[in-house]
Amino acid sequence: MRFGPIRAIVIDDKPTHLFAIGAGLAGVGIPCMSYWYNRDTQSLVPSPRERHKYVRLVFTDLNLAELGSNPEPQALAAVVEMVLKQIIAEDGGPYVLVFWTEVTGKVPRVRDLLYERLEDIPHPLSIVELKKAPFLPKKAVGGQDVEVALQKMFIELAHKLRELGKKVTELSELRDELNIVAEWESRATEAAAGAINEVVSHARRDASDKKHVGDTLKNLLAFIAKSAAGERAAAAEPARALDLGMGEILIDRFSTSVDERAYRQLVADALGPILPTSQHFRDKHRVASALNTFFHVDVNVKGVKSNERGVVIPIGKHLPRSKVGLTHSELLKEEFLLPLNSTKQEDLKLYEALLTDARPVLVEVGADCDHAQPKPRSMRYLVGFEVPKQYIAFLVGGRSQRTRSPSLHCLGPWLIADEEIYLIVSTRRFVAWQHSRAPAGKVQYRLRTSLVNKLLHDYSSWHSRPGVVEFRPT
Length: 474
Hints:
This protein has three domains: 8-165, Rossmann fold (3-Layer(aba) Sandwich); 175-271, no CATH class; 284-463, no CATH class. 43% of the residues lie in helices and 18% in strands. It contains 15 helices and 15 strands. It has helices spanning 15-27, 73-87, 107-117, 146-158, 161-172, 176-206, 213-229, 231-236, 238-256, 261-271, 284-296, 321-324, 328-336, 345-357, 449-463, and strands at 8-12, 33-38, 43-45, 57-60, 96-101, 126-131, 140-141, 144-145, 297-298, 311-314, 359-364, 379-388, 408-416, 419-433, 445-447. Helix 6 (176-206) crosses helix 7 (213-229) and helix 6 crosses helix 9 (238-256).
């Protein structure tokens, strides 16, 4: 089982200092791998099993070999270079090297030497300094020299870590479901980190100087964002633009890793026996609603504007008659609801309640290209209604669960604000807004791309149906 690639590494020759920086990183939510540098053997404990491809932070003591109070920069750089070559992979990605040190005045020269000397591994984006003194613990506890005791502990444990790791892995793999989700998360993390590694490899080739790879990387990311979303849209929403550009790379790298034999076998062994059977839940309808919401709807819409793609906006109990030509209840009866054929009193009451409880909304379905440039444009919003689940029989019927018209799409069920609802949308009925003035109203949620594309495709088909004028002899 994997729990994601290692992103931060700490190295020191003094175990108390190692614990101090490791605890500090963990305290701010950055898990890390710790290596003790054994000066006697000039080796790392534990010995690295492989070099790291996705590390982003490296904290190391500057004077790992304890070369005195005034060591030569060349000697300091040589030891650090040797250690970095043991832990950084040849195809590693961008990382920052932090000298966690008590030695003053040496970092600038060591930095220059490392940029000159480092070969076969990537150079750090930056090499910076962090003073140790404010963060170190006391050396003596109970009269015992902590450093000596911890050194002995590291040496003793080094021979047992591999076996301990095997046992921990065996215990964690007792639950197939935990193994699957941990592997899936690790694949996703590695896909994201691998995409960044690929981008930074282009930055290294283009950079004029090894010290300026970071500036080139920043330019590359800006270039990706502008090319994906357009210059003006990228300037207005740089985070969305960068996601748009990097998203395809991430998905591609993630999809290729599914062919790893061990992962395929793991999923086949765990899920293969139950896939042909029915899955049972205490409340299957609510589970389905929650999953539909997860796949179809983005409910995290803080800061989302009412003219953004896929937004769903409530427009009050009464539709603007000047816009759609009908009132709320008239539109429901004449275009959205199935004809009421029942004469049962409970059905009539439910039908009347639906006319009140159905909530009219507007759904933005602009094409991707409409949003590439934030310029004045005509915006079209499809008209729809949010309907609580108890009224579903009035929206779709028959074995095929058909709507009243082919132009209607009943989406859901979704779980929005802990309420199970359906959204019924007309691809024939729309409201137009001119220029950049968007309709007023707080965005409830936003439909994901797959649903927006489906609605937009059907809307385009409905409004551009070819017709032929024919003259038929009787």
